[in-house]
Specification:
Length: 241
C-alpha cells in the first residue's frame, strides 16, 4: 500500500543553513538565491530554486566554466545628467553580463514531499540526489522527483548553450586566436600537450593567489577551455595528428 502524502517540500531560505548544508563557512553569503523559478526558465508545474555565488568569469571570454553556472545581466550604476535648464535626470547605466557559480539547485513539484537536487563543491564535484525520502511518500512522489532531475539537466543545458553562443558571437572573444595559436604550437612541437599550450597562452601566473594548488587549478581550467576552443575549429587537439 502506498504511503499517504503528508508534507510538501519547501526550499530553505536561510543562507546560513544552506551554507552549513553545503559544507561552507557559516558566514558565506549567496549572491543568487532565486525561487521558485530561475532566470525565466519555465518549468510548468514544477518549481526550480538555486543558490549561487558571483564569480569573476566572463563566459564570452573564458568559455564554459567547469562547474554548474547561470548567466544574467545586471545594470551598472546610473549617471545623473544635468540639462541646460538646470534640471537633473537620472539615467541607468549599461547592462553587463555576469556569471554565477551554482552550488545548489533543487527542483520540486509543489505539494509533493520529494525534490531533485544537484550540489556542487570544488573538492567533491557534482552530486545528484533525490531528497526527502525519509518522509512518507508515494510512488507518484518519486516519479515527480525524477522528473525534477530532468528539468535541472535541461536548465543547465540551456545555460550551457547560452554560454556557447556568448562565446562564439562575441567580437571580443579570443577563443579562435587561442585555438589557432595552440594548434600551431602543437604541430611545430614547441609544446607537447594541450595543457602546455594552455599554460603558455592562457594562464596569468602573476595574478594567482599564494595557494599552492592555484597553479594546478588554473592550468586545468585553461586546458579544458582550450580543448573546447580547438574542437570548435574542427581539428584534432592531439600534437601527433
Amino acid at each position: 500500500m502506498a504511503a499517504r502524502r503528508t508534507s510538501s517540500f519547501e526550499p530553505e531560505t536561510d543562507d546560513r543553513r544552506v551554507a552549513a548544508y553545503l559544507g561552507l563557512p557559516s558566514d558565506h553569503r549567496f549572491d543568487m538565491a532565486r525561487m521558485p523559478e530561475v532566470g525565466g526558465h519555465s518549468t510548468g508545474e514544477y518549481a526550480l530554486a538555486h543558490w549561487g555565488t558571483l564569480v569573476d568569469w566572463d563566459v564570452a571570454m573564458d568559455g564554459e566554466p567547469p562547474w554548474p553556472f547561470a548567466t544574467a545581466r545586471v545594470i551598472n550604476s546610473g549617471v545623473c545628467v544635468v540639462a541646460e535648464d538646470g534640471t537633473h535626470e537620472a539615467r541607468p547605466g549599461p547592462s553587463v553580463p555576469v556569471t554565477f557559480q551554482l552550488w545548489l539547485i533543487q527542483c520540486y513539484r509543489p505539494g509533493h514531499p520529494l525534490a531533485a537536487e544537484r550540489r556542487w563543491h570544488p573538492d567533491l564535484g557534482v552530486r545528484d540526489s533525490i531528497i526527502g525520502l525519509t518522509a512518507p511518500h508515494a510512488e507518484a512522489d518519486v516519479l515527480a522527483a525524477w522528473r525534477g532531475r530532468a528539468l535541472i539537466a535541461g536548465y543547465l543545458e540551456t545555460e550551457t548553450r547560452r554560454g556557447r553562443r556568448l562565446l562564439e558571437e562575441s567580437p571580443t572573444s579570443p577563443w579562435r586566436h587561442f585555438a589557432e595559436r595552440a594548434t600551431e604550437l602543437l604541430k611545430t612541437g614547441e609544446v607537447a600537450t594541450v595543457r602546455d599550450a594552455a599554460a603558455r597562452l592562457m594562464v596569468d601566473y602573476d595574478s594567482l593567489s599564494d595557494d599552492p594548488r592555484a597553479e594546478t587549478k588554473a592550468e586545468l581550467a585553461a586546458e579544458r577551455r582550450l580543448y573546447r576552443y580547438i574542437e570548435r575549429l574542427g581539428v584534432s587537439p592531439r600534437a601527433d595528428e
